[in-house]
Amino acid sequence: MCRRMSDKFSFSVSATDGRARSGVIHTPRGEIRTPAFMPVGTAATVKAMLPESVRATGADILLGNTYHLMLRPGAERIARLGGLHEFMNWPRPILTDSGGFQVMSLSSLRKLTEEGVTFSSHIDGSKHHLSPETSMEIQRLLGSDIVMAFDECPALPASEEEVAKSMRMSMRWAQRSRDAFGDRPGHALFGIMQGGVTRELREESAEALKAIGFEGYAIGGLAVGEGQEAMFGVLDYAPGFLPEDKPRYLMGVGKPDDIVGAVLRGVDMMDCVLPSRSGRTGQAWTRRGQVNIKNARHADDPRPLDADCTCPACTGYSRAYLHHVFRAGEMISGMLLTWHNLHYFQELMAGLRDAIGRGALAGFVAEFEAMRAQGDIDPL
Ligand SMILES: [Zn+2]
């Protein structure tokens, strides 16, 4: 029996400009326009935002964190309550990470073996186990549309030998993830390339993943403190090792200039907590760079954060108000700045997609850089 088109997961590239691509990922829960920026909804919420507000900024897909959700409220509970989409009132696509990265960064008393990793919860100290098989099961219970293979992220700094050893175990785990994922029409499993900053290891990892076969491919192990130059150094060749007809996802990126640089190098998807986390700490991202709303220079400034931005923070409020509510610790401060930041990030993605479609990416990037070079508007 034929499956309806809408039941399938697929990706099509509609335009290219240099190595940059624009296209669409089709899923049964809706389309994802690429290059895509995915806001992070760690604990089944993008902090300070209603789901409909996240959608209003232009997001097509959210990221959820397996590690956080398995510990609280628990994957089985979310499954009983109808799955993550229903639970958090976000009917559109969701990507979940495998939990591996956050086990390494957040939990204590880890024991890592070929089988998987046993760890203690950072919340209550309770013991848990994650392996390729349990990670696939948890992500199935959550109901995520794009499931990430379970991998290991070596703690930095690491020797090339350690990176190679870790990468090869991650490739064995990638095969186990593929086997455990099973046949789930409409859902995708992405493999994750590792190999640090060594070209030969990146190529070996990509070949191993392609031999297994995935619906999409992530570039892992970057944006972990190596610096933009080293990251772009890897991105100059790594996306080229991956299949052209599958989405490429750069995990944990990033700042606006990281995003632009990654898109220029052929990346289709990214995620980062930056716009929402910055919004809660008084940092705004605008076309003219970063603005620290805590700064006393804003206290009497009746102008909006960005006169050309159409978000609620910029159309309804002054810098003076944003400064005041931050200083007063009012909740609306994080709400408005998070909305603005997510809006700016999604506008940037829309601009990149449009420019790639018109074959005008070089001009778009030149304008992006020129605006940032101007810096924030002068104080009154
Ligand atoms: Zn705004």
TrEMBL record:
The keyword tRNA processing applies. Keywords: Glycosyltransferase, Metal-binding, Queuosine biosynthesis, Transferase, tRNA processing, Zinc. The lineage of its organism: Bacteria, Pseudomonadati, Pseudomonadota, Alphaproteobacteria, Rhodobacterales. Its EC number is 2.4.2.29. This is Queuine tRNA-ribosyltransferase. Homodimer. Within each dimer, one monomer is responsible for RNA recognition and catalysis, while the other monomer binds to the replacement base PreQ1. The active site is at residues 97, 271. Its cofactor is Zn(2+). Substrate binds at residues 97-101, 151, 194, 221. Pathway: tRNA modification; tRNA-queuosine biosynthesis. The gene is tgt. Zn(2+) binds at residues 309, 311, 314, 340. Gene3D superfamilies: Queuine tRNA-ribosyltransferase-like. One of its GO terms (cellular component) is cytosol. The keyword Transmembrane helix does not apply. Belongs to the queuine tRNA-ribosyltransferase family. It is an enzyme of class 2 (transferase). Binds 1 zinc ion per subunit. Residues 19-372 form the tRNA-guanine(15) transglycosylase-like domain.
